[in-house]
Design brief:
CATH class of the largest domain: Mainly Alpha
CATH topology of the largest domain: Vanadium-containing Chloroperoxidase, domain 2
Order of helices and strands: HHHHHHHHHEEHHHHEEHHH
Distance between the termini: 55 Å
Helix content: 55-70%
Shape: elongated
Oligomer: single chain
Structural class: mainly alpha
Number of strands: 4
Number of domains: 2
Length: about 450
């Protein structure tokens, strides 16, 4: 055999080897997982999902992805037996399987089922499979992977049916009362109470929605100028009337209003942004990219953070609708200044405690565990809404700014923020203490 044919055989061999392995580079790219999470984020945004429901969408999809990762990586362990009422989960029936692609496909399948309109993500599901095929994944592996992903998605969706979500769709409507200090709808839309029964949703890790409780809101007393409540209400008014450019930027950056109703004379129109949960999902992606986390570590960080946000919202809503505290806008307009308006639009649920404060602190605790303390980063999430980036020295720094954005926005009292932040930290730490994502051997190896 002459040298030409020998060289040709070598080149063909190299080409075939590259074709067979190219799919691994595609499916195991952590940026691809972040892109896939963003797909659901965009669906949530376009369909005006309320913050609490959005948190549910992300969490179940992330858990499905994580379970595929754990099935193929012995350094991670299943959440079955760790999350409430989640029993054993399926393993692949036929090998070989690409577990990264399975994670992506199961994420999309679950995300597609818990969002609407139905089928909105199925085109992307097919895109992922076609891209893996084009990158050289063997047909039998692609078929096995797709079958495993679908089986995992079905198991997670079956588990999700027991979280009381369906029952809350037909629960009794919230009843307003004329009692002083109780929450009532606020302008401009005067929307009825949002998801007043969300505290009945099954928690993931917490024993119940009432397990982590704040110290308690100041006693309602708006007529006594020496009372703590009056002082805090007046503070909201004064802060909004003297906002700095930096404070306005922080308020706008963490507004995260899924649907703001804009009123200009007789003209009304809505503008959309990410929900708070979606914003923090973006931050996970930013942090994972900066940390150069691999695919599995990226999925783990998304999953545990989303669980912290999910349980945080349930616990927060328990407090909100038990205390039923009136919003600053209502109090200030009635007793201090009828012409005063908040900087941000007041959301349609009670004031105490701040949801932003709770879920941001919970997320920050969990992300610090995954990426480390003093992890500085620049958040680019709001650029698509025309809001400049913000940089933070740590996840705690971001959580605190998210919390204080609600005072700058004129929609929360100081106690809502301070107590919410402490409550969120407690929830985040509880989740970290109970969930064990890494196996004991893997943890010891990483130390």
């Amino acid at each position: 055999m002459n040298k030409f044919y020998c060289l040709l055989l070598v080149l063909c061999s190299i080409g075939c080897t590259q074709q067979k392995t190219d799919y691994k580079k595609f499916t195991s790219d952590p940026l691809l997982f972040s892109k896939t999470v963003k797909k659901i984020n965009d669906v949530v945004l376009s369909n005006n999902f309320p913050p609490v429901i959005a948190s549910r969408n992300y969490t179940y999809a992330n858990i499905a992805a994580y379970e595929c990762v754990a099935a193929g990586d012995s350094s991670y362990q299943s959440l079955a037996g760790q999350l409430r009422q989640l029993s054993s989960l399926p393993k692949p029936l036929v090998l070989p399987v690409d577990y990264s692609l399975a994670a992506l496909l199961s994420f999309v399948k679950v995300g597609n089922a818990v969002t609407f309109p139905e089928g909105v993500l199925l085109d992307y599901y097919e895109e992922l499979k076609n891209a893996a095929d084009s990158a050289g994944m063997p047909l039998d592996m692609l078929q096995n992977t797709s079958a495993f992903a679908d089986t995992m998605a079905a198991a997670i969706l079956k588990w999700s049916k027991g979280d009381n979500y369906a029952q809350t769709r037909s629960a009794e409507r919230y009843t307003l009362t004329a009692e002083e200090g109780r929450w009532i709808p606020t302008p401009p839309a005067y929307t009825s109470a949002l998801e007043p029964h969300w505290c009945d949703i099954r928690t993931m890790v917490m024993d119940s929605a009432a397990q982590c409780r704040p110290t308690g809101a100041p006693k309602y007393d708006i007529k006594n100028k020496q009372a703590r409540f009056y002082i805090q209400a007046l503070e909201v008014k004064n802060v909004v009337e003297s906002l700095t450019d930096e404070q306005k930027h922080i308020a706008d950056f963490f507004d995260d209003n899924p649907f703001k109703l804009n009123v200009n004379g007789h003209l009304m129109f809505g503008t959309k942004k990410f929900s708070p949960a979606g914003h923090w999902m973006n931050i996970v992606g930013i942090a994972a990219k900066k940390a150069k986390a691999d695919f599995n570590a990226t999925v783990a960080a998304y999953t545990e953070t989303s669980i912290g946000i999910f349980d945080g919202f349930i616990s927060c809503w328990k407090v909100k609708f038990q205390t039923n505290l009136v919003r600053p806008e209502t109090v200030i307009n009635k007793y201090i200044d009828p012409n005063w308006r908040p900087y941000l639009q007041t959301p349609p649920f009670p004031s105490y405690v701040s949801g932003h404060s709770v879920i941001s602190a919970s997320a920050a605790q969990i992300m610090t565990h995954h990426f480390g303390e003093n992890f500085s980063f620049t958040d680019t999430s709001e650029l698509e809404f025309g809001i400049p980036n913000l940089s933070f020295t740590s996840f705690d720094d971001a959580a605190l700014k998210a919390s204080w954005s609600r005072l700058y926005g004129g929609i929360h009292y100081r106690s809502d923020l301070e107590h919410g932040n402490l409550m969120g930290k407690e929830i985040g730490n509880l989740i970290l203490s109970r969930l064990k994502l890494k196996t004991e051997g893997a943890v010891a190896k990483n130390k």
